[in-house]
């Protein structure tokens, strides 16, 4: 152990080997010959700045553009919200539960699912719980929250939560970034996703307030129906990609009292233009005296 | 600053600067070292007007060389996009010959195995002749003790590498006709003893 201490305290290598000799040798290498050419070289170099080869410039531009295009068309997976689900646990049963759900304007036949569980507590008493699941397809968050608040008002819940119903969709990065919607997906994604996507587009990409609906006709046609509730500006444009895959787009005006000043004549006023695969729905404001 | 004034300032420091750059670029090829010194000299000439105190020319020049070296280590890819000017061939400026450092291969090989910062610190001290304080400023360190410990660590590392290189070539040592012990032999033996002590520990 003493030897080890001695080793750590003094560096024996340092005492014996000196690095000054090899460094002095290195220092003594003479380069004065090259110094004579320095003046001429400096003249030449300072006049001609280093430039990128034109060929490399072009290659780099093409490469970068290609990379950007490839990156933009890479399919990305997105979670698309197609509705909301309210999930709660209550100990209240009929008739109180029925009254509460009716008071909250819930459709007992299609929207509400009940699941009753019977458990035993530590003292051996039977505990009955009802798990209530309410599905609100096509609802936006605000509507779902309003519904939840209404339920909370009319029924006592041990636990109540609002959960989004999501469906996974795949679309190119640039379409996702621009909130564009490819109608061609009509064959790939469910109607719920399609409706949610169009509604999202109406909200983000246009000044139209409205709701979309998918209608399956008897002759097997699939129709996208957009019910326009309101719109601002003289002209509203909505961009779709690949309109050919959809047979028909109808736009209707709903009975919205707020739209008194806006008159849509008839469907003839709604134009569907196809410009390089992009459909524009044009809605023009018509004056009352016209 | 005119070109002649710049060369006049450069001349006393030129040899050390070129040797410093050559040793700093050890681990890369000769062309790399050539490129770094050329870039550094050109940069120094172009920016010579910004030098306020000519007395600080040496440390300023060494700092430029160090920065150019770090740049060359960091971004070798982009250098491929920089053209070689054919007219350059007419104006020959070759700093490093093929056999420039042939007498110091052991030290240079050992240097190439150090990190860039360690290499730069030891060379600034040994070849540049800068003080600890100056090296601290050049390497943007907060304390002189950091430089001191870096230098001490680097020296030990260098020696260990050089001993290991000696050990790796025993045949050349046996072949030596002169049987008398030299400093390196003594050093060699001492290092062996130290290794044994280490293994006992």
The oligomeric status of these chains comes to heterodimer
What string gives the helices and strands of chain B in order?
Answer: HHHHHHHHH
Largest interface: A-B, 39 and 58 residues
**Unreliable spans of chain A:** 1-10, 243-247, 253-269, 284-290
Count of helix runs of chain B: 9
Q: Average pLDDT across residues of chain A?
A: 68
- Please count the beta strands of chain A (DSSP E, at least 2 residues each): 12
Structural class of chain B: mainly alpha
Q: What's the overall geometry of chain B?
A: globular
The percent range for helix content of chain B is 55-70%
**Helical residue percent of chain A?**
25-40%
Tally of extended strands of chain B?
0
Terminal Cα span of chain A = 108 Å
Uncertain spans of chain B: 174-180
Largest sheet descriptor of chain A:
5 strands, mixed
What's the N-to-C terminus distance of chain B? 61 Å
Overall radius of gyration of chain B? 20 Å
How would you sum up the major sheet of chain B?
none
Class by SSE composition of chain A: alpha+beta
Radius of gyration of chain A: 36 Å
Fold blueprint:
The complex is a heterodimer of chains A (290) and B (201).
Chain A: H1 2-9, H2 12-16, H3 20-27, H4 32-47, H5 54-73, E1 75-90, H6 96-103, E2 112-120, E3 126-137, H7 141-154, E4 159-172, H8 173-177, E5 181-182, H9 191-205, E6 208-216, E7 222-231, E8 235-236, E9 239-241, E10 248-253, E11 271-275, E12 278-284
Parallel strand pairs in A: 5-9, 7-10
Antiparallel strand pairs in A: 1-3, 1-4, 2-3, 6-7, 8-12, 9-12, 11-12
Helix pairs in contact in A: 6-7
Chain B: H1 3-24, H2 30-46, H3 57-74, H4 105-112, H5 116-126, H6 132-138, H7 144-168, H8 170-174, H9 183-200
